[in-house]
Each structure stands twice: as structure tokens, then as C-alpha cells.
Amino acid sequence: MSFQCTLVSPERELFSGEAEMVVVPGFEDGQVGFMSGHCPYIGALGCGTARIREAGGAEHRFVVYQGFVEFSNNTLTILASSAQKPEEITQEMVDEDEREIRELPSKTPTEYDEKQRRMSMRKARKAVLAAR
To answer: Which CATH class is domain 3-86?
Structure first.
């Protein structure tokens, strides 16, 4: 059984179609998975890899950076503040992320949280790049 899934960022739609399963990063609670018939859900989207398995088995990975997720009436909507497709990620981006993260301060809770978010993004980009 499948359900309708849409992944959008402010700039564009990255995916729209029938999905069998979707797993997205939660804001501070690991990952959240969805299958057909999931109970209604609204939650914050974290930083990391979103995996969408289409009806028929094809799997897509995207890097997402915060936003919201809603599942209602067998429809999943992922509203990401920022998102990237695998083909948009380069090794140079991952290397630059690493350099920038090293230079970020982490003395205050806000600085620490931002550094952690950036590290999650780098890890997601690296994983998506490796899976290409």
C-alpha cells in the first residue's frame, strides 16, 4: 500500500509521488518513519537525510535542513527550510562544511546547537554523497 508524498523547500518541489515508506530526521527525537495508514502527525523536521521509497521499490535520498512534517489522510508533506538532491552535493561541499564547522564557536548553548546542526548536515551530505 502506498500514500502520497511531497517534499518541498521554499525554492522548489524536490519530490512528489506515491511512496511505500518515508523516513525523515526528527528535530530532537531521532528519525520518524511513515507508511500507509500512519496516524495523523505534525512535527518539526530536523537536519539529516530524508529517505523516500517509492511504490515499486526505487529509493531516493535528500538532505533536509529543518522545517515541518505533516501526515494526514494518507498524505505526507515535508516542508524543508532547505533541501538538496544527491546530484547537487559535491565532495568539495563536504570538505568546506568540515572546515567551516571547525571554525565555529561553541561556547554558548546557541553556538553549540548551531554547530551540532551543521555537523548533522555535513554527516547527511556525506552519507548521501557516498550512496550515489
So the answer is: mainly beta
